[in-house]
Amino acid sequence: MGQLVTPFFGFEVGDGKIVSFWKDKWCGTTPFCKAFPSLFAIATSKEAWVNEVWTAEGERRGSWTPCFNRPFNDWEMEEVGRLLCCLDGKMVRVDEEDRVRWMESKNGIFSVKSLYRALQPVSLASFPSKIIWNSYVQPKISFFAWEASWGRVLTLDRLQKRGWALANRCFLCQTCGESIDHRLLHCERTREVWTLLLSFFGVSWVFPYSVKETLLG
């Protein structure tokens, strides 16, 4: 049971003495080692605690100082910027202890109801199977739509999660990280194509958040 619920726990940082800077979930829902694999690969201390990466500069003031084995390459600077954005506003509070937080509820407190909801498989009723597996659609297109709906297409964000040390930047717009939802819906270049296509039919469309929501709509 412990292994089953462990992924749903994270930390609320106090003094930062028992929370791993890179390996624990304390800043968002993903550990930095998985969110920023390129930076984790060159981190000087992969086992550093949060308080070891914080330099105090007075009461409740300070700066984050993660150390790395070498200078950054140009293509790594975007990831550095995203890491700093995640850390912005976070601080170590030496007068408070670190606390375990339940990630599946807004107040951070465990409840059986939230655990049940977290363990529930995705409902088949909320999956656009009738649209994807349609006899009028070519099989290769159906398979791609299926992978896109489940987020299984090997975009750069997926490759990073598999441990590839590479920068995540959409090659079309060069401004945002690449994910399947970004590539197919939210990229500036993609939106231009959608807008042109829909204009032929006189349609104005508010883009859903994900490919799955688009197909369900």
Description:
- The chain is mostly helical and 217 residues long.
- It has two domains: 9-118, no CATH class; 124-216, no CATH class.
- The chain has eleven helices and four strands, in the order H-E-H-H-E-E-H-E-H-H-H-H-H-H-H.
- The chain has helices at residues 2-5, 32-35, 37-41, 77-87, 112-119, 129-132, 139-149, 156-161, 180-186, 188-199, 211-216, and strands at residues 9-12, 54-56, 62-64, 99-102.
- The strands form two sheets. Strands 1-4 form a two-stranded antiparallel sheet. A two-stranded antiparallel ribbon has the order 2-3.
- A hairpin with a 5-residue loop joins strand 2 (54-56) and strand 3.
- Helix 9 (180-186) crosses helix 10 (188-199).
- The longest helix has 12 residues, at 188-199.
- Residues 1-5 have low confidence and may be disordered.
- This is Reverse transcriptase zinc-binding domain-containing protein.
- Residues 110-194 form the Reverse transcriptase zinc-binding domain.
Q: How is the main sheet built?
A: 2 strands, antiparallel
The average pLDDT score comes to 83
Strand order of the largest sheet: 1-4
Q: Report the sheet-strand fraction.
A: 5-15%
Instruction: Name the shape in a single word.
Output: globular
User: Would you list the SSEs in sequence order as H and E?
Assistant: HEHHEEHEHHHHHHH
* Total DSSP E strands: 4
Which quaternary structure do these chains form?
single chain
- Give the radius of gyration: 21 Å
Helix content: 25-40%
Pfam families: zf-RVT
Protein name: Reverse transcriptase zinc-binding domain-containing protein
